[in-house]
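Worked example

This section walks through a single chain of length 448. The input is the sequence exactly as stored; nothing has been trimmed or padded.
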Amino acid sequence: MNDNICAISTALGVGAISIIRVSGPDSILIVNKIFKGKDLTKVKTHTIHYGFIYDEEEQIDEVLVSVMKAPKTYTKEDIVEINCHGGISSTNKVLELLLLNGCRLAEAGEFTKRAFLNGRIDLVQAEAVSDLIYANTDASRKLSLSQIKGNLSTIITNLRNNILDVLANIEVNIDYPEYEDIEEVTIEMLKEKINYINEELTKILATAHDGKIIKEGINVALIGKPNVGKSSLLNKLIAENKAIVTDIAGTTRDIVEGSALIKGIKFNFTDTAGIRKTADKVEKLGVLKSKDIIKDMDLVICVLNGSETLTSEDKEILDYVQNKQTITFINKNDQPLKIDLTGENIIYGNTLSEEGITALKNKLIELFNLENISSKDFTYVSNARQIALLKQAQNIIKTLEKEVDNNIPIDMLEIDLKNVFDILGQITGQTYEDELLDKLFKNFCLGK
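Given that input, the structure is written out below as tokens.
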């Protein structure tokens, strides 16, 4: 933490500008060695200065240099950002000069790691920084920003403070029973607190499903026997001619993927090979792959040809997905219908008009409660690590509820309460292991 790090913070390649970031106690001095313009050691913080980068007498690039002095910086250390002309050669040369003059190359995510270790952000906020970089929808961007602002962290911290109050009272009751003005921790009081904590954990975990949807999107498989219109439906849903459409059964032999935004949520559609019995080795592999893909999908859209009577193959496919969340789309209703099915998740339509497609999209909105997601604030838990820790904490709390009912001594219950306190601390990073940090930040990009 006492050394100086540098990295290219923009994508390496041809572009208008490249930004090289330097952080550490000597970052201003190091950049000043290779910069000709104002003396950077004498300028005010949070100012930008025009000049040139030099390698001894050779001019390397014309630059703008931003100087930001601790503690009001991203890492809470002195930071200098060099804005070069975009390009591989000049950018790498400036980076090389920094390395020769006292910097080392930053590890992936090391700037954000320093921000965490220096107390500027907590672990939830640090993870949200990475999520913001990779956010590909407006909703996922809002979710990441909500976590960066500390909305989720505040909820977790408040829970820990409630537990801490109980633990402090228990300690005082045990160590100083003679103090009559100290509130006595009774079984009833403890039961009330434990119930409250369980309710709060339940509320947070209830947001996990929506958080996952916002962050990762919804995975949907289009399945059915060959030539029922799956590929045409995919093209219609994603508004792109991505899948090949022909009258020849079995045209789609491998998966075709495409995505679309519905109510700001990303839907990842997968068009699968038509499911049927076949002697063709290649098609058979496609059918097996189709069945395997279905297992990991959030939703299956089973496509039937409405202009044909229901076949044994159709029935087998419907039976195969009966334990999955399914919408049955009866296609080709612009022709005389020979299928008559009713039910909540059955949609009639065709790929030539918008009526059935609109009804299908509305059903997707309804099934995943997208209207509610898009109208709520964005205080969700969406990170698998955080969800696992919250579930672990709640399991202990549920055990505590049973132990309280069985009149287990309060000093024994205190041990489990401390465990919950520590687990919640792992979410925000108030308690952590170095191995965890290394694992988390290695997934960041260089320069962040």
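What to look for: The longest strand covers residues 58-68.
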